[in-house]
Amino acid sequence: MTDTRHPTETERKALAERAGRELEDASALEIVQWAADTFGDRFCVTSSMEDAVVAHLASRARPGVDVVFLDTGYHFPETIGTRDAVDAVMDVRVITLTPRQSVAEQDAAYGPRLHDRDPDLCCALRKIRPLTEGLAGYDAWATGLRRDESPSRAGTPVVGWDEKRRKVKISPIARWTQDDVDAYVAEFGVLTNPLLMDGYASVGCAPCTRRVAAGEDARAGRWAGRAKTECGIHG
Fold first, then answer.
1. Going by C-beta distance under 8 Å and a sequence separation of 6 or more, which residues neighbour residue 155?
2. Beta strands in the chain (DSSP E)
3. Which one-letter DSSP state was computed for residue 75?
4. Cα–Cα distance for residue pair 227/235, rounded to 1 Å
5. Which has fewest Cβ within 10 Å: 47, 92, 113, 162?
6. pLDDT reported for residue 5
7. Catalytic residue among 44, 122, 123, 231
8. What is the pLDDT of residue 122?
9. Which of 169, 162, 157 minimizes the C-alpha distance to 20?
10. Quick check: is 231 catalytic?
11. If DSSP states are collapsed to H, E and C, what string results for 166-232?
12. Is 73 within 8 Å of 104 (Cβ atoms)?
C-alpha cells in the first residue's frame, strides 16, 4: 500500500487486527516501520513529552514524521521545554494541538480548578476533544503505551483498532519494560523530560501529577487519591 491510496475503514480495521497478531514478537522499530510504510504521511506519533522514545523510533523509520503534542495549558515548564527541544534537534515535525478554550476561558465557563472538581470533564475538554480533532487527517497513530505501566494497560496490543476514533493505533513499545526504555535512551541519547529525574514516574498536567513513592507503579502519581487512572485518551 502506498501513500497515494487511502485505505477504507474496513481495510484499516482488518490491517490492524492482522498486524496485531503478526507483529506481536517484532521489534519496536519493525512495528513502527510497518506503520510508516503502510500509512505514509497519514501516520503520526502522539507524545506527552515525558520522553521522546517513540518519536525517535518513528524518525528512524520515517524522517520528518509528524509528532503530535497536546498543550493543555496546564503542563509543567519542563514538558514544554522538552517539546521545544525535540522540535529543534530531532528529524520530526512537532504539531502542537490546543483546546478550543484557554484555561481562563474554561475557568469563566465552568469555574476555576475544574480539574479538582470534575477531572473527567477537564480531560475531555483539554485532551480528548482536541486530540480527536487533531487526528482527523491521519489513518494511524503511535503511542508510548506499555503493558507494565499499570493493570489497565496490561492488555495493550502492539497494533490494534481504536474504536472511538476509527483509526489504527500502534503501541510499538507495548512489550518493553522501564529497563528497555532506559537502555534505548542511553544508546541513542534520546531526550527525556527532566522531571523523570526528580521523582516523577509519569508526567501529565501539573495540577494532577505528583511524584511517586518507592514501590508505587508508574501511574500512581496521576490523579492521586482518586479512582481515576487514565485521562480517557486510551480508554
1. 147
2. 43-46, 65-70, 92-97, 140-142, 159-162, 167-170
3. B
4. 14
5. 113
6. 60
7. 231
8. 94
9. 157
10. yes
11. CEEEECCCCCCCHHHHHHHHHHHCCCECHHHHCCCCCCCEHHHECCCCCCCCCCCCECCCCCCCCCC
12. no
H-helix or E-strand spanning residue 28: helix 28-39
CA-only gyration radius of the chain, Å: 17
Query: Which residues, given as ranges, of the chain have pLDDT below 50?
Result: 1-3, 228, 235
- Determine contact, residues 28/173, Cβ cutoff 8 Å: yes
What is the pLDDT at residue 229?
54
Greatest alpha-carbon pair distance for the chain in Å reads: 50
Count the residues in the chain: 235
Q: What is the pLDDT of residue 220?
A: 76
What local confidence, expressed as pLDDT, does residue 129 receive? Answer: 94
Which cell numbers in the block locate residue 173? Answer: 513499545
